[in-house]
Amino acid sequence: MQQHKLATIEDVAAMAGVSIATVSRAINEPTKVADATRRRVTDAIARTGYTTNAMARSLRMRRSNMILILAPDVGDPNFSNILVGLETEASKRGYGLLIGNTQNDPSRETDYLRFISSNQADGLILFTGHLPYGLGQSPDEARLPPMVAVNEPVIGSDVPFVGVDNFEGARVATEHLVSQGHRRIAFVGRAPNREIARLREQGYRAALAGAGIAVDPRLVIDGEGTTESGRAAAELMFVRDALPTAFFCVNDATAMGVMIALNARRYDLPRQFSIMGFDDISFASFLTPSLTTMKQPRHRMGEAAMELLLTLLAGDKPKSLEVLLRSELIVRNSVMRPERG
């Protein structure tokens, strides 16, 4: 029986038309190799059967070429599109993804971190808004792997962050309501302990101040960013007897809750109340009326976060440790000029 000779790195280099050193970099440091070259090397590895050798080399280098993602809720409407961007960029660079659905459970986070301690993952993408439990409280600790926060920053740390400019987006959203003639504008979703909500409230307040409109504290309602908290907030407005002409909601889920409450009371939207959201999640355009909102570039957020993390993993210095992308005003049918001032 004829035995086949095991493929060597020289075979891969010859087939790909590159040097042995380039093949080695494509395997061990894919971020330092041009995409077209890396694809030729990857194709040559597959055709020569050198994959097993390449995997063994990766193990010797104590590199997994895997990235661990920690997310509190993979069912969050924003998560899936950001994940697509993360996966797209990771795949280009020869990396795969491991997803940890933490459900805000410290013990689950600690369990997932075993992927890091056992060298099954090289770096971390954080959706949690805090340092992982079990890794200590300071990102300066030597045992922390390279990590990047996306969507929700890690306050009080030096963890690099990629997200939207929440202050600016909220300012633009509120200014749109003001431009339509609204002066009594509610903010639904106040949550000082959550950075995204805090920044969006600041943007709301800045827009009102810029228009010479005083903030009525009765129109600023706490919320958890959920549909139920939006519904409850709208009901609280009626209890306070301090009705706005427009609601600026901290996110689209909250806006949907507000709309549910107002529809249940048989109000004609947007003729009697205008509604503004933030995020532009998938069902925003299917609500009745369709929701005017601020669109987050979620796919690009994922790509930018992975680009930043892989730059750190390669030992290179990134251009910036904070990437803030612009959100886009999406005008639909839930906002119109008020019938009353």
From TrEMBL:
SUPFAM superfamilies: lambda repressor-like DNA-binding domains (SSF47413), Periplasmic binding protein-like I (SSF53822). It comes from the Bacteria. SMART domains: HTH_LACI. This is Transcriptional regulator, LacI family. Keywords: DNA-binding, Transcription, Transcription regulation. PROSITE patterns: HTH_LACI_1, HTH_LACI_2. Residues 7-61 form the HTH lacI-type domain. InterPro entries: HTH_LacI, LacI/GalR-like_sensor, Lambda_DNA-bd_dom_sf, Peripla_BP_I. PANTHER family: HTH-TYPE TRANSCRIPTIONAL REGULATOR GALS (PTHR30146:SF109), LACI-RELATED TRANSCRIPTIONAL REPRESSOR (PTHR30146). GO terms for molecular function: DNA-binding transcription factor activity; transcription cis-regulatory region binding. The keyword DNA-binding applies.
